Amino acid sequence: MFRPQRRALIAAAAAACVMTALPAHAADTIKIGLITALSGQSARAGEALTRGMTVAIDDINARGGLLGGRKLELVRRDDEGNPAKGVLAARELIYKEKVAVLFGGLDTPVSMAIVPIANQEKVPFMGPWAAGTPITHNGANPNFAFRVSAVDEVVDKAMLQYAQKAFGATKPGLILVNNPWGESNEKGIVAALAAKGSKPVGVEKFEANDVDVVPQLGRLKAAGADVLLMVGNVGPSAQVVKSLDRMGWKVPVVSHWGPAGGRFTELAGPNARNVHFVQTYSFFGTQTPVSTRVINELKAKYSDVKGPDDITPAVGVANAYDATQLAALAIARAGSTKGDAVREGFYKIDRYEGLIKTYVKPFSPQQHDALTENDYVWAQFIDNRIVPVQK
């Protein structure tokens, strides 16, 4: 009468033997976290980051994954552009989801709130958009923050140089969002001007929710500004353009890349095209083998993508794609998903033929930013498309 129990025990023991014979963690995915704006005015940029990461992950998984066949898995959280929500999302992705690499999204204040947690918990942080200089120049040792994106202090020099070359500007006025991103750029632009023996004719700030910037712009006009150097995300940058319209002031606007992050033309109106802004990549022009493949993969995966016009903002897709591929190489070089090993793995990357460029030893203990001023292009909105400025 005990035979059925005996047979069950034997079967259970046999199953246990089979389970222990399987390679450890062979079926486990390697989770990559993304915290970004997935709703609100910048949702389009958050979707661009998602698409760039997704296509890269599909590529990597199609090649057999990492660390003996483990597939990558993207886990996303919406920070709504709010640093406090970004911190909550970071804790969940680190402690609960146990991500191997944490990607930060759009906003410098959010990324700057997350990076100390990443450093404390020894989880590599990758920035595919936010450009605040202190994100990677954060004073931590060891430093777990890396970036494939623009860097404020470099962009600031580029903005000044472009304003002088394209518009012959000699009296720049600064119009900046009143947050850590604006502060980062104020320091960078003032330093860039000081290096040339100059200074801005005025520095004005606006809040992210301001609907009228005429008073600030009026002071810059009275000071004689012949170009505006602007830093702000989609909504507030659009309000600057609309305020200029109300004043009837036709002054060149050279901007950081905030306007590229969402519904800028819809919010700013027809004069959105007058804003020239920095980008790290454009899908327009001669295609490389990598860009051709990425465009085809985006067209196959997303029904709204028919060609380069529909890949917008291109900077989000391109930065996220290359950043994901580089993070995968770091994990492969590490031979592990342990945070400190992956951090060291970034330093061991020799060469990667990327979308933006060919990366040669892109990271070192002293350099955590993979892109330089040589990787920037200038763009504008034409018919709701981000296209390179025609020279």
Which secondary structure elements does this structure contain, and how are they paired or packed?
Elements: H1 3-21, E1 30-36, H2 43-62, E2 72-78, H3 83-96, E3 101-104, H4 108-121, E4 125-127, E5 145-147, H5 152-167, E6 172-177, H6 180-194, E7 202-206, H7 214-222, E8 227-231, H8 234-247, E9 253-255, H9 264-268, E10 275-279, H10 289-301, H11 314-334, H12 339-347, E11 351-353, E12 358-360, E13 377-382, E14 385-388
Parallel strand pairs: 1-2, 1-3, 3-4, 4-5, 6-7, 6-8, 8-9, 9-10
Antiparallel strand pairs: 10-13, 11-12, 13-14
Can you write the helix and strand succession as a string? Answer: HEHEHEHEEHEHEHEHEHEHHHEEEE
Shape: globular
Mean pLDDT: 91
The main β sheet shows up as:
7 strands, mixed
Arrangement of strands in the largest sheet:
7-6-8-9-10-13-14
The number of helices is 12
Distance between the termini: 91 Å
Can you put this structure into words, describing what you see?
This protein is of the alpha/beta class and 391 residues long. The chain is 43% helix and 16% strand. The chain is built from 12 helices and 14 strands. It has helices spanning 3-21, 43-62, 83-96, 108-121, 152-167, 180-194, 214-222, 234-247, 264-268, 289-301, 314-334, 339-347; strands at residues 30-36, 72-78, 101-104, 125-127, 145-147, 172-177, 202-206, 227-231, 253-255, 275-279, 351-353, 358-360, 377-382, 385-388. The strands form 3 sheets. It has a 7-stranded mixed β-sheet with strand order 7-6-8-9-10-13-14, sandwiched between helices. α2 runs parallel beside α11 (314-334) and α3 (83-96) runs parallel beside α4.
